[in-house]
Specification:
about 300 residues; alpha/beta; Rossmann fold; 3 domains; six-stranded parallel sheet; 10 helices; globular
Length: about 300
């Protein structure tokens, strides 16, 4: 059978060429192997499989040898920048109370305290807007909303520290970070005056710089508040870390070029922090202390 007689069968044809010509090497040439079309397809298929496996293994090795995004970041820090609500302080009950008082005064239905977990974090104006019935919100002018926001702020100022408390272990952690010589700051989307009052009430003298929302400075997650605070504290990015409890905080840190520590005890929870790209997630405030143990402070 000649190579031209090949069909779709799986027959393997092996033929030895003619004897070597006189004056040649005297060695018999290797056999010439003809493959059927089906066998050729199988060989090609196996070859492709091995090629894919080899490429996948090479890709795996290359990825495992590449440092992660934050691998170059320091593991120890001198500057700790904190969010306020849901991070340092549990303010949820007082925020909810202020908004529910506003709703009741206008004959609108209240919300359960827990529902406010998903309303806070983007500034007081948006908090008030979110708590309103949708039918009311859709028909409000900017002036009407501003009037309601001012009313809500008055309600909140009247009960600022009624139920608000530091999270368990937070006061001790802030004190210990200060004892280790760390530079501490606070950035909040809460109005500046209320932010300062709360921080000074619960952590007197502990923070070098405290910024709430101020005119002319955008809200988080814009990084401008972080840059403003770091400039005032004379902090450097290479020794700073941002601590917060929400996706807004994780995005703020990312845009500012800082590693982010997510607080699992906060308003939004661990799942949101993880999906938002938190560099590290902690369950207890005192875990922050180990991040401050630089060689300068280690015995």
């Amino acid at each position: 059978m000649s190579p031209s007689d090949r069909s779709g069968s799986s027959t393997l044809i092996c033929r030895f060429p003619a004897d070597p010509v006189p004056g040649g090497t005297g060695k018999k040439p290797a056999p010439v192997i003809f493959l059927t079309e089906r066998r050729k397809a199988r060989v090609l298929h196996i070859s492709l499989i091995f090629t894919v496996i080899k490429a996948s293994f090479t890709l795996f090795i290359s990825f495992t040898s590449i440092p992660s995004r934050w691998s170059a970041m320091p593991q120890y820090f001198q500057t700790f920048i904190f969010d306020l609500d849901g991070t340092l302080l549990n303010t949820l009950a007082d925020l909810a109370g202020a908004c529910n008082s506003l709703l009741t005064a206008h004959g609108w239905p209240e919300h359960p305290v827990d529902a406010y977990r998903l309303m806070v974090g983007n500034g007081f104006r948006l908090l008030v807007s979110r708590c309103l019935p949708s039918s009311v919100r859709e028909n409000l002018t900017d002036e009407d909303l501003s009037a309601l926001v001012d009313e809500g702020k008055r309600n909140y100022s009247a009960r600022l520290t009624e139920s608000t408390r530091p999270y368990p272990g937070m006061s001790e952690t802030i004190r210990e970070l200060g004892n280790r010589g760390c530079l501490l700051g606070v950035i909040s989307n809460k109005p500046d005056a209320q932010t300062r009052l709360l921080v000074e009430h619960f952590f007197p003298g502990a923070f070098a710089c405290v910024h709430g929302h101020r005119q002319g400075i955008p809200l988080k997650p814009d990084p401008a508040p972080v840059f403003s605070l770091m400039t005032e504290m004379q902090a450097t990015a290479g020794s700073s870390v941002y601590v917060g409890d929400s996706s807004v905080d994780m995005l703020t840190a990312s845009r500012a070029g800082l590693p982010s520590v997510g607080c699992a005890w906060g308003f939004r929870g661990e799942e949101e922090l993880r999906s938002s790209g938190a560099w590290k997630i902690i369950s207890e405030p005192d875990e922050l202390v180990s991040m401050a143990e630089t060689p300068l402070h280690t015995a």
